[in-house]
Amino acid sequence: MYRAVLEAVAANLDGDARETYLPAGERDRLLMQWSHNPGATVGRSVLEMVEERATTSPGALAVEVGDTRVTYADLDARANRLAHELRARGVGPESLVAVLLDRGVDLVVALLAVWKAGGAYVPLDPAFPADRVGRMLADAGAQVAVTQASYVERFTVETVLPDAPGRPSTPPERVDDLDRLAYAIFTSGSTGRPKGVAITHRGLTNHVQWAAEVLASRGTGGAPLFSSVAFDLVVPNLWAPLVSGQRLWLLPPDTELDGLSAALRKAAPFSFIKLTPGHLEILDPSFAYAPVIVVAGEALPGPIAEKWRRVLGDGNLINEYGPTEASVGTCVFPLTRLHEGIVPIGHPLPNMTMFVLDANLRPVPAGVVGELYVGGTGVARGYVNRPDLTAERFLPDPFGSVGGRLYRTGDLVRWSADGSVEFLGRIDDQVKIRGYRVELGEIRAVLLDHPDVKDAAVVVHGERIVAYVVGPTDLAAHCGQSLPDYMVPSVSVAVEWIPLNANGKVDRRALPDPDGAAGERPYVAPHTPEQERIAAIWGQVLGLERVSIEDSFFDVGGHSIRAIALVGALRAAGYDAGVRHVFEHRTVAALAAALATTAAPAAEPAGVAPFALVPPQVRAQLPAGVVDAYPLSQVQLGMLVEMFADEGLAKYHNSATFLIRDGRPFDAEALRAAARTVVGRHEMLRTSFDLDRYGVPLQLVHAGAELPVTVRDLRGLDEAGREEAVREHIARERADLFDLSRPPLLRISALVESDEAWRLGFTHCHAITEGWSQHSLLMEVLDLYSGRPAAFEAPSVRYADFIAAEQASLESTQDSQYWKDVVDAYAPCVLPPDWGDGPDAPRADLKLPIVFRDIEDRLRALATDTGTSFKAVLLAAHLKVLSTVTSEPAFHTGVLYSARPEAPGAERVYGMYLNTLPFAHDGSARTWRELVRQVFAREAEVYAHRRYPLPAIQRQAGGHRLFDIMFRYQDFHQVDTGRVDVRAGAGEGSNEFTLSIATQPGFLVLRAISNGLNRAGAERLAGTYRAVLEAMAADPDGDARAAYLSEPDKARLLQDWNDTEVEW
């Protein structure tokens, strides 16, 4: 290369210094050998090849979906009839026809019919919002749409149903032209406007011809279609089987993603399958699906690929790359070895070219990063009705024949030494999310359409789209009106302004971390392999891309449930960890040092086999359809006893509704399908209780259960009427108690308020679920309902493992002695008797908020400064308030804990894991810092014994009730507030505590039963909570032993009760 540069300088001092001067041999490799792949000439269209199969093999199976099977002859005849109908509606050469149909035979018929009529199809996804569909049709100039009856109202253009009775079954006359338009697929646009990519029959056939020769030829089973036809990745799956005389198998449209593996196995073997890396992750590696699998749509990680390569064998897993603008595919890379990072995208397909160029369209040397330009037969005609954008992205080919063009991909790549291309990332803001191409600029444009949004920026963090907004952040419903689900930001962050760099572009490094405080502290990288492993586990549990080794677990999103999940993940990785380690060693650095020297804690019971916790004679008596049985937990049993002793209070029978603003009409069948899926996944939703038939109270897990789903339409009511209807609904649900012997002990309801919003209601028996499980269930049902479920893999741990762990704790002398010591050494905290109305007065349930949002940042800073948790700060405030109402210097009071097993996946197992335990407290702390640290240390102590059930503690204390006050810390971060309006929720439940304090974002909720704490007493107490919180926020080194009274109490003490003036 030096020689080439020197020769150029010597030959012409006025030569182009920007030119790339490569040795002759390398230039030939880059521009000829590596970049070209001459192939067979394209002679016939895909349509002609399919028609030929209908002539030569009329009785062969062409399309299969569920129980429906259609031959090539039938398929051709149906397409001909519809083609005549389309001709009658004015469809001819170059006409663009929208196609919006559910996955089924009619979809294939419609696509063929559009071609037979001479037109080109515009495939649309049923999940697209109506607004997006309208803009696509306007840009395409489409005047006709083929659709089904349920989608007709989405169109303003003329619609045609796929069934065309009375039309001829012979093909209409036409003149085939390979350079005529075949289809236009709309992809995300950087200006906020989707752009239609115009693909010709020649470009389409070039790719399908390769797929038929290389992929379909590997078998006779055809290929499956299970993704949207609005996504061009499916083109080979759709057309290669049909041009080869094989079957096209369609996944029934009502099949959820978690059923894909079973459905494919049942229909296998196929000749080939093409899918995305995300699909690979939810399928078990197996040769049974097909002899060859093609992966495309987004970058393929090496570890995922390697699992499949080992099963399929060398060369049978193929990574494919290709923008829509290159007719599906540009290049392929068959895997023959392990790849640590991203798998290369390989070499050009037949009749395609690839060039790696610099900003001046000059080739860069092998190994140097440049932009990928693709050319050849597959290059699209351009963008439909967008000549400006076409001219910008489709450029004359400086290395090819006259008239040739290159498409500028915007992808950063480099040539490797073996002549394959390695993908490195994007130049612009275009990304892939779940296999779909997304222009972040389009999302920003939609955000700016909101009247209250002044500015916005959109970036990608991991797999999440994050919107930074100057204005309101509750924008999910607004975005959902114009964007498909995969483009709606999953996180919105409020900012005062959008930071710009010196070039006037968004300075992404200056944007705040969407995960909160983690981004506000300096990042310290791991120093040792152990720190690196533990940091990676933290990141996995907390959902963070990276974790500083100096970050406190509780400052970066950690809490009790996540601490349990972290311990499970650490144990799965071979570390001898317990929850107490997380409390005592709160950073990666400290935890790595501790785990290097700490002995293993007691082994966690796990892997309990079905029926292992009941005697054989009991199992023999169980009814058919029961797949497991085990005892109730002590807390479950206590709840049921309270329920049976109920005096019309409906204790532990809870009902709540959540307002869903999804910007689309409600779909009852989708909700019922989601209900069926969650019942099948989770044992606790198929569980019933039997208290007396088997000698010991049991919970029975049934093989199946029908979850009731009711729907009520409130759209005809005004706002006041809807509110009243919601209250009536909750009252009815609360009055309708469950038969505990019949599962499920859960009901789902939907209250439809408008075409854009509805309420999702849950009524459940508290004995089968608690807050964390309930909120996880809420999001799981919503994800399934919305058609975007995450891959589900049943955890290895079950609720039966929790029962086994409780039984082991009951046998533990250490656990029983710990709680005996607490109860013996600390008196119960009791409210003053005159603060209530008395046991004979009518009962009233009270609820008061105690807002601390205005001082929350200072309270959280106290947690950070003391190296503790926010829970410890609020619990310390609670204990301080209780110390002002009792004369006992040392006391205990109820604090709610989760006793979930410390095993991987336990946080995803629904059940009732709560255990309210007597928390010991004394008044020895002198400052707020000292008090918070003292409470946090006590928390770590409690966690080691949290499985010992409260009823057992009460029995060993003489059988009396230990406390009537309870503190509950809640952090249900799994709820997507972009879809669920938590502020507009409604619900009602009941428990037995005279006073309970629960945390909510920005405030505490004080609940009281008037017999023991009436409204006047509750208001006094609420004022004291606020006074204590203000004192803690104002001065962390302030006196924690001083009296902190509410303003009314101060007035009574200092003025009213000291006013002794009398008349003589």
UniProtKB/TrEMBL annotation:
Q: Which Gene3D superfamilies match?
A: 3.30.300.30, 3.40.50.980, ACP-like (1.10.1200.10), Chloramphenicol acetyltransferase-like domain (3.30.559.10), Luciferase, Domain 3 (2.30.38.10), Nonribosomal peptide synthetase, condensation domain (3.30.559.30)
Q: Which residues form the signal peptide?
A: none
Q: What is an example of a Pfam family matching this protein?
A: AMP-binding
Respond yes or no to whether keyword Phosphoprotein is given for this record.
Answer: yes
Name one process (GO BP) from the record: secondary metabolite biosynthetic process
Q: Which PANTHER family match?
A: FATTY ACID SYNTHASE, NONRIBOSOMAL PEPTIDE SYNTHETASE
Question: What is the name attached to this protein's record?
Answer: Carrier domain-containing protein
| Naturally occurring in which organism (per UniProt) | Phytohabitans rumicis
